[in-house]
Amino acid sequence: MSGMVQIGALVPLTRPGWVEAGRHLLAGLELAVREVNDAGGIVGRPLELVVRDTAADPQRAAAAVDELARLGVAALAGEYHSVVARAAASRADALGLPFLCSSAVLDALTEQSTEWVARLAPAQSHGWQIYADFLLSAGHSRIAVAAEPSVYWASGARILRDYLAPRGGTVIELDMRALAMPALAPAAVCDELVDHRATALLLLVGHPEPAVPIVQSVRRDQRLADIMIGAPAGQPEFAEWATLLGDDGTAIPFLRYLPERLSPLGARVETALRERLAEAPSFVAFEGYDTVAVLADVLRSHGPDRARTAESWPRVAVEGTRGQIRFSRTPGISVWQWAWTPVQVVDRDPAEPDRFRILHVG
To answer: Is the model's pLDDT at 22 over the cut of 60?
Structure first.
């Protein structure tokens, strides 16, 4: 190890992983590591990131956790995809390896309560209820969800249904497997929206397929001129969305985890991330930076001892790019949770697609 303190980083860097999200997450992780080392490292020892590509594959992620544990990393960081983070968290828990999850939101990140895992991203139930509030305040009560089969999408649909039903909202689920052949699915979605008199369509599907063709079909269907398309999972956050969809990709509200105004630290980090990425950093890049900021603080205080790192989650108090980070036990959440990072509903401005409009704040 040559005197280095190592952190294992799980990041989706190849398809079918969301590569753009992975690139932003890694940029944040790497920037923070560079700054930690410029400031003297971990009590004089350099911090090193040992990166493994999960490619959105839970089995590959679990194998990477095993390998990183054998290599002697002090802790794990990262991961964007919820189902992948769940596999990694369960393995980390079994091995006694501290894991600070950067980006995945699934409430049940582990089957049972664990001391080994902490999370920066808000739980899906928290963020998606804020999104549901936004839908109601915008006058939408008949909401269709185009959903693909996965634990994450099913969980999102259930959160929306449970929250909206007592408040007069109806959630109409369109099973993307059932809508004819894949080539016909976007047209079939349009027919279902008309039949159900939906006023909003939420994309609980992968990106770019089938999200992009669904948006294109709905935007071109005269019968659906007044329908709102939404993407709570954040697909429009990244530049690739605007590149693929152009004007069709605007005015599609999504969740992002940023404050209305960045602190001086946040603003400085934003400038450095913009330089590193050669584009505006997404909230995912800030999540990466904050992950290393927290782990570095813990490692400076307690050294690279895994058990002591896990024991220190409840004592963390770190100034992150988006506010003061502290972890607590939150009802219904199986890991140590930052409750909560700021939550916004935003969209891309039709008049200026590179600009985001804040529509609702949670």
So the answer is: yes
Quote the DSSP letter at residue 45: B
CA gap 279, 238 in Å, rounded? 10
Sequence-distant (≥ 6) Cβ neighbours of residue 146 within 8 angstroms? 174, 176, 189, 201, 202, 203, 204, 205, 210, 214
Which tens digit of pLDDT belongs to each residue from 279-336? Answer: 999 999 999 999 999 999 999 999 999 999 999 999 999 999 999 999 999 999 999 9
Q: Which tokens in the block code for residue 44?
A: 């004089």
CA–CA distance, 284 with 24 (Å, rounded to integer): 6
pLDDT value of position 1: 42
**DSSP readout, 72-121?**
T-SEEEE---HHHHHHHHHHHHHHT--EEESS---S-SSSS--SSEEE-S
Cα–Cα dist 21/282, whole Å? 8
How far is the C-alpha of 239 from the C-alpha of 323, rounded, in Å? 25
